[in-house]
Amino acid sequence: MATIKDIANRLGIAVSTVSKGLNGASDISDDMRQLVLDTAVEMGYASKKLKAGSTRKVCILIENMDYENIDQFGYEIIMGFKLSAARRHWEVCVIPADLNMQTAEKYDTYMLKNGFSGAFLLGFSLHDDWVKQLNKTTVPTVLLDNYIPVNPHVGYVGTDSVEGISIAVEHLCSLGHKKIAFLNGSKNSMVSDERYQAFLQSMEGQGLIPEENLMEYGYYVPDCAKYHVPTFLENGATAILCASDLIASGVIAELNKRGLHVPKDISVVGFDDLPLAAQLTPPLTTIRQDRTDLGKSAFLLLDGLIHNVSVSKMLLRAKFIKRASTAAAATDTQKSPQPQRLK
Amino acid sequence: MATIKDIANRLGIAVSTVSKGLNGASDISDDMRQLVLDTAVEMGYASKKLKAGSTRKVCILIENMDYENIDQFGYEIIMGFKLSAARRHWEVCVIPADLNMQTAEKYDTYMLKNGFSGAFLLGFSLHDDWVKQLNKTTVPTVLLDNYIPVNPHVGYVGTDSVEGISIAVEHLCSLGHKKIAFLNGSKNSMVSDERYQAFLQSMEGQGLIPEENLMEYGYYVPDCAKYHVPTFLENGATAILCASDLIASGVIAELNKRGLHVPKDISVVGFDDLPLAAQLTPPLTTIRQDRTDLGKSAFLLLDGLIHNVSVSKMLLRAKFIKRASTAAAATDTQKSPQPQRLK
């Protein structure tokens, strides 16, 4: 473990300058402070304060995810995390992360400079600069829904998508649906891949053939519905399983616009169980991710990593919430859904 | 939630008799006590003591697993669990489970009768009576290496076998091995299935073809080596990956008996990193399962389930431990291993 003296020797500067750099004193240049911090990280320096656990401070870094009110996905996750952290007397800083932060400074340097013992990263994707650095970080780090191989300092927390998707498919099959469309989340994401595989397996498990033209990616925006719903209808879908409640809300709006009634003409299932799910017309059948528990589990995992328990993965149960947006598939004798052509 | 009175009404007996049954009083018959307990469980009765959390008592039920000294797989798992439990002031009872216990009484009844708020099950297999009842249990329960679908009261803890196997295969490939044999654990177990799939994927990921006659099940006993090592050798294996250190110890003994030298003639990799792994000749290259951390994580998970955080899965990192039982594969110009025929 490198000491302040080692850093001073490496840089050929005074120990007092290193100390100023590490403690954020204002009487050295920004460049010198950055050099000291980067060298400290590179040499594996850990401050006495962090080592002794006297500063109990972690951060939630958040990007591409709304969290400011209870209707948004991140809100309860952050609440749950803070709740568990408070119980163990940890301070939590919630910090919106942007690309500038990530290009300005290395991840480990940022953490050392700010005295964080660990971090929970929300909404990051695998091509983010800081996520790319996680293969080698020594900072205890928890990701939501993203997996970093091998590094014992990084773990991930998420909801068991495989179980969630399979429960939804079973439910739709039990209602007689055979032509089930799947409007997935973002392409090139671990969770979307898992859900896609789970959808294929569940359909096959039910003796159904998943059809290429009934599977699309919706990038978690309601607006995607207008591109994909028409194709699904042309290909005979009687039910649409969506990767989020927001997507599902867009799908229902698009179906209504075309004169189709949910669930009489076509069934719709969401994912997440955001508060809005119960407010939609009709109230949405969905797969619940317990966001408060996700936050609590993320803190538990981070606390474990800080104490050298290398958990790589912690998955929560998905819970099926039956509401009014799903019903029996129209039988062959009934008229199959005939959408109005939009002008 | 059923009350003592509800149970008395259902059975047509006095409240005082129900109370005696629930509290283990000796002045009612065994049959009556059992009837009271079974009815209480069936009606979803939870005693006030358990509800109020005033008894903080959980159990470790253990079957088919040695745990009495540090050389055995279960020892550190139990230590880790007890350590975490003690820190939160929970009492832990370690109870060897046998088939009689399981046929004598339902799982939930046993837990209620003994005042356990939850249980950690070690070494059970999916065909055990009590495990079959876990689909419907309301007792917070953690399993090692076994997965129960859907039930939010049951979770599992284990080591990331997929990562472990893939690290081992990569290591052997980097040493030039192409004919890698895999001596797996017990058939029809979730972990063995996962490891088998991981082996196939890792081999294919390295551009190698996994061969049917180089993959067998060894049921975690060293003695299995004498059945499978000869076949592996006949089929040209230059390395044997084993699902446990115990299997690997048997494999090394069998190879030695046939005049083959590990690792010059053939490389051997274990799994677990039991204390014996470092004591073997040669010291065994293996994949470490951190058993203390498994125990700690199991307690964390159980604590979560008791507080209604439905974690379904918690996986620990596998860690590669390089010792002396692996070396470069003999090149084509060198003599390939020629085992002596045993009389």
Structure description:
Two copies of one chain form a homodimer. Chain A is of the alpha/beta class. Among the domains of chain A are: 1-45, lambda repressor-like DNA-binding domains (434 Repressor (Amino-terminal Domain), Orthogonal Bundle), CATH 1.10.260.40; 161-289, Rossmann fold (3-Layer(aba) Sandwich), CATH 3.40.50. Chain A is built from 14 helices and twelve strands. Chain A has helices at 4-11, 15-23, 30-42, 48-52, 73-87, 99-104, 107-114, 129-132, 161-174, 190-205, 225-234, 245-257, 275-279, 291-306; strands at residues 57-62, 91-96, 118-122, 141-144, 154-159, 180-184, 215-217, 239-242, 267-269, 286-288, 311-316, 319-321. In chain A, the strands form three sheets. In chain A, strands 2-1-3-4-5-11 form a six-stranded parallel sheet, with helices on one face. A four-stranded parallel sheet of chain A has the order 7-6-8-9, sandwiched between helices. In chain A, α12 links the parallel β8 and β9 (267-269). In chain A, α1 packs across α2 (15-23), α2 (15-23) packs across α3 (30-42) and α5 (73-87) crosses α14 (291-306). The longest helix of chain A is centred in the middle third of the chain and has 16 residues, at 190-205. The relative contact order of chain A is 0.12. The A-B interface holds A 149-150, 152, 160, 163, 167, 290, 293, 296-297, 300, 304, 309-317, 319 and B 149-150, 152, 160, 163, 167, 290, 293, 296-297, 300, 304, 309-317, 319. β11 (311-316) of chain A pairs antiparallel with β11 of chain B, so a sheet runs across the interface.
